[in-house]
C-alpha cells in the first residue's frame, strides 16, 4: 500500500439519473477506498448549467444511498475539502486560472470561432496532421492583450503546453502506460469567455485541491487524461494514478443504452432488485475476485477489491446473470431476514398487515418459510401470500384452476371427505393436516394429484400456491373449512 492515504472520488454530472455504468464506477471507487482504508469522496460535477439539475443531484444521492455506497466527504456529509459541488467552487477555478496566467502558463486568446474555423480549414488544406489550435495568440504582447481586454473584447484562457514537454505518459493501473504525443495536444481552453472553467481544468483543480490519489473512471475519459496531466504539471500538483475502466456493453456488443432495457439504477431498485445483489453483479462487470467466484458479499468486495483485477476488456451486461445473483441473495437470506427486509415491507405496502403486530413471530416465520422459496422479486410476495391473507369470502378463485382442479366429476366427494377429515383434527398444524389428507386418495380410489389439486384450489384459489399443509395451518381451521364449503358449489 502506498504511504499517502488513498483518496478517491466519484464525480457524477447531474445531467441525468445514475446510469449502471456510473454506478459501477462509484462501486469501484468506494470499494477501492474501503479496501485501502482510504477516503471516498462524492463530488457533484454540475458545471454544465444547461443540463445539470438539482433534481438529478437528489436522484443520484438517493441511488448512492440505496446502493449502500456511503461517502466520507461530499454533499450532506461535508468534509474539509468542500464545497463538493463544482458550481460552488467557481472562485477557485478563476483563482487557479489567474495564477497560471500570472505565471505565464496560460494566456488569453481572442480568436473568434470564424478565425478558428479558417485556421482549421487551412491546416486541412495543407494536409497538416495537426489541425488543432494554431497558437495564434500564444505570443501576443501582454500589453496589447491587456488593452483588448480593457476594451471589452471577449477572450478565453488557454493553457501553454510547454514546447519541450515531449510525450505525455499516462500511468494507468488498468491500461498500463499510455503514451500521447504532446504535439497533438493543442493549447486547450481552460476558461471560457463567460469565465467558466472547462471540464479538463475544473476536474484537475478539484482533484488536486482535494488530494485525490487515484482517479478511477470510465475509459471514455482516457483521451482527456494527457490534457489533465498538463494541467497538474502547470499547477505544480502531483499527478494521481489513473484507472480507466472499460465500457459496459449490451448483448449485441453496442454500448449499453435504453435499447437494451433498464439503464438507470432506480429502475432496478423499483423492479425489486436487492441492493446487495445489484452491487455484487455490477462489481463483476470488469473486476473479478479470483476469476471464478460469483457471489461476493459487500464486505468481501470492500476488503478485497483491487485495481490489479480490473480488466481492460469491455464488459457485457447480462440480465440473466443479474437475476441469478438476485435469486442467490434471496435464497441465502434467513427466514427472519427475509421476513423483515422483504416480506413484511411488501405485505405492509399492500395493506395486508398493518403494523405486523397482529401476527406473532412464529406465524410470520412460518409464512416466510413458505413464501421465500417462491419469491424471486419482492413483488412476488403478495401474489404468493395472497391466499393466506384472504378469507373464505374474499378469496379469489382463478378460473382456469377451478376448471382444471375442481369442476370435475368426483371432486365434490373429495371435498366432502377432506372436510370431514379436517374437521375432526385435534391439532391444527401442517403435519396433522398432511396426515389427515394422506389416506384420501386410497379411500376414494383417486390419483393423489387429483385429490390434492382439488383441496388446493378450494383453499388457495389456484394451483401454484405454497405447500398445502403449511398454508392451511397459517389460514386456520375455521376459514379453511369455510373455503371448502364455498368451493363445494363449484365442484362436481
Ligand atoms: N463529471 C465527469 C463525468 O461524469 C467526471 C469524469 C471524471 O471522473 O473525471 O463524466
TrEMBL record:
Under which main EC class is this enzyme filed?
A: ligase
Subcellular location per UniProt equals: Cytoplasm
Q: Where is the Aminoacyl-tRNA synthetase class I anticodon-binding domain?
A: 359-487
HAMAP family according to UniProt: Glu_tRNA_synth_type1 (MF_00022)
Q: What does this protein do?
A: Catalyzes the attachment of glutamate to tRNA(Glu) in a two-step reaction: glutamate is first activated by ATP to form Glu-AMP and then transferred to the acceptor end of tRNA(Glu).
Task: Kindly state the subunit structure of this protein.
Answer: Monomer.
Entry-linked NCBIfam families: gltX_bact, PRK05710.1-4
Task: From the Swiss-Prot or TrEMBL record, give the protein name.
Answer: Glutamate--tRNA ligase
Which gene underlies this protein? gltX
